[in-house]
Backbone:
C-alpha cells in the first residue's frame, strides 16, 4: 500500500459525459501528479500540482482539467468524453517536486 | 526534452535464469532514473532509483541497475528469476519538477 488513494476504482460512462477522478496523496506529500496509461500512448504525464498550484503540464487535453485543494487532495476532471479517453488514470504524490513518487492504484475509465 | 527507450517489449526467461531488461535514456540535464514494476490490475511500485550517487543501484526483490553515462543506459538485472517476478517493468527519467517520462514497458514472463 503506497498510501495514495484514488476513487473510484472503476468508472463506466458514455461519450460526451463528464467525470471527476479523485486522489488523496500520502500524508505530508505536497506534490500530486496525474498520469494516463493507455494501450496506444503508454504511460503519459498529464499535470502536476504543488501545494495547490499548478507546477507542470504535459500532454493534457483542453477537455481535461485538474485542481489541488487546500487539504492537498486533487481532482482530475474529464469532459466531453470520447472513446479514446478510455484508460487507466494514475495519481502519484511526492513530498516535494522532484522527490520519489508513490503511485495510487489507479482509476480505470471506460467510455462507451 | 527527455525520452526513454526500452529495448524489447517482451522478455521471457526460465525460473532461475538471469533477468536483463534494457533501458536507454536521453536527457539534456543530469537525469534521475527509475525502474517501476506493475503487476496486473495494480499501480506502479518503485523498484529502484538513481539520483547521481552510486552508479550501481540496488533495489527491492533482488533487482539492481547500473547507470552508464557513456552509454546513456540504465539496464535492470536480477541474477535469478522467480515466478513472482512476472510483471510489466517501466523505466522512467525524471525531468523538471519531477515529472516522469516513461518507456513503453517490458513484459517479463518467467517459465517454470
Residues:
Amino acid at each position: 500500500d503506497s498510501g495514495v488513494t484514488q476513487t473510484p476504482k472503476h468508472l463506466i460512462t458514455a461519450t460526451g459525459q463528464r467525470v471527476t477522478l479523485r486522489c488523496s496523496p500520502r500524508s505530508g506529500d505536497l506534490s500530486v501528479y496525474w498520469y494516463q496509461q493507455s494501450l496506444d500512448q503508454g504511460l503519459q504525464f498529464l499535470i502536476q500540482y504543488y501545494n495547490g498550484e499548478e507546477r507542470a503540464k504535459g500532454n493534457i487535453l483542453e477537455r481535461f482539467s485538474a485542481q489541488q485543494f487546500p487539504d492537498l487532495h486533487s481532482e482530475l476532471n474529464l469532459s466531453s468524453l470520447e472513446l479514446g479517453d478510455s484508460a487507466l488514470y494514475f495519481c502519484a504524490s511526492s513530498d516535494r517536486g522532484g522527490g520519489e513518487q508513490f503511485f495510487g492504484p489507479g482509476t480505470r475509465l471506460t467510455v462507451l | 526534452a527527455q525520452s526513454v527507450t526500452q529495448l524489447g517489449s517482451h522478455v521471457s526467461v526460465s525460473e532461475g535464469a538471469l533477468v536483463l531488461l534494457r533501458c536507454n535514456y536521453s536527457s539534456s540535464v543530469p537525469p534521475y532514473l527509475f525502474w517501476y514494476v506493475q503487476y496486473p490490475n495494480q499501480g506502479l511500485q518503485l523498484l529502484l532509483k538513481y539520483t547521481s550517487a552510486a552508479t550501481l543501484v540496488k533495489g527491492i526483490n533482488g533487482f539492481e541497475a547500473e547507470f552508464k553515462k557513456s552509454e546513456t543506459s540504465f539496464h535492470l538485472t536480477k541474477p535469478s528469476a522467480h515466478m513472482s517476478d512476472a510483471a510489466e517493468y517501466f523505466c522512467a527519467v525524471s525531468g523538471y519538477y519531477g515529472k516522469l517520462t516513461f518507456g513503453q514497458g517490458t513484459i517479463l514472463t518467467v517459465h517454470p
